[in-house]
Write a structure and sequence with these properties.
This protein is an all-alpha fold. Helix content is 69%, strand content 3%. It has one domain (17-155, 169-259). It is built from ten helices and two strands; from the N terminus they run H-H-H-H-H-E-E-H-H-H-H-H.
């Protein structure tokens, strides 16, 4: 009989392999059923989403005296980018529903302590994803675009009809630009999961906050390394990401100290020999 132990599964009812497959199928159907209407809505707002994502690039081009336009290079590109942006937006907005279906599938096999950890971490992880997207859009993207546009203007010029013109004329594809924005946002959002990873280590007893705090200089180096890997190959974006990453590391240490529980040593079950 269940004794209320935190190591007891939440659902003690035994499910066969076929029942697990049926439950998985049901959850997938529910997830897709919830995703489809969001895709339809996102498709109708696809033009506004594209305009929102293109706004930082168009602003930089306008400020540098260039035509504020992005270009397509084949007849299907406009439709393809509309569909891709709509699908990505739908996946982002429907993520809570999809995660809920995943949670319902795995919850029956989790212990009480594991459920408690997940209930803390899922909202925190979602919050950090939103923070990463907002930070990349409002902070990193304008700086990175400005840097690359400034660098493009440093190429030599040549004389055409008595006027100096740059030998380089950038032409930006909307497909490549959207890929660049997506890469940046995914990289920053992944990096912003650092406090979540640290909290998992603390709540599971695998990472000691005192041990991590003693290696701050290595953490600082790791933040700059992550900034170099997860962002485009320029120094401004690396520094812009490394600084908040280190701040998140310090914030993660605070959370770890609040939740840290040293592993409990197992009691020795051996019977002491009676002294004679």
């Amino acid at each position: 009989m269940p004794n209320g132990d935190s190591n007891q599964p939440v659902n003690d009812a035994h499910m066969s392999f076929g029942e697990h497959l049926e439950d998985l199928r049901r959850r997938l159907v529910h997830a897709v059923a919830g995703l489809i209407p969001i895709i339809v809505v996102a498709f109708f707002f696809g033009d506004r989403i594209i305009a929102l994502l293109c706004a930082p690039m168009l602003k930089v081009l306008h400020e540098h005296g260039r035509d504020a336009q992005l270009h397509i290079f084949n007849v299907t590109e406009s439709f393809t980018i509309w569909m891709k942006v709509s699908l990505v937006a739908a996946l982002v907005f429907s993520a809570p529903w999809i995660f809920y279906q995943m949670w319902k599938f795995v919850a029956s096999g989790l212990y009480t302590t594991e459920r408690r950890i997940v209930l803390y971490l899922v909202p925190l992880s979602t919050l950090m994803v939103v923070a990463g997207v907002l930070f990349s859009y409002f902070v990193m993207l304008p700086v990175v675009l400005e840097f690359f546009e400034y660098f493009a203007e440093q190429f030599p010029t040549h004389s055409v009809d008595g006027q100096d013109q740059s030998i380089l004329e950038p032409v930006y594809s909307i497909t490549r630009y959207m890929g660049f924005v997506l890469f940046l946002m995914i990289g920053v959002s992944a990096a912003f999961q650092l406090p979540v990873v640290m909290l998992i280590g603390s709540m599971s007893g695998l990472l000691d906050p005192a041990w991590l705090a003693s290696g701050r200089k290595y953490a600082l180096f790791g933040c700059f390394a992550a900034g170099a890997v997860l962002t485009p190959t320029d120094l401004p974006s690396m520094f812009i990401l490394a600084v908040p990453l280190y701040m998140l590391f310090e914030g993660g240490l605070v959370l770890m100290r609040l939740t840290w529980k040293p592993p409990v040593a197992h009691e020795d079950n051996a019977v002491e020999v009676e002294q004679t």
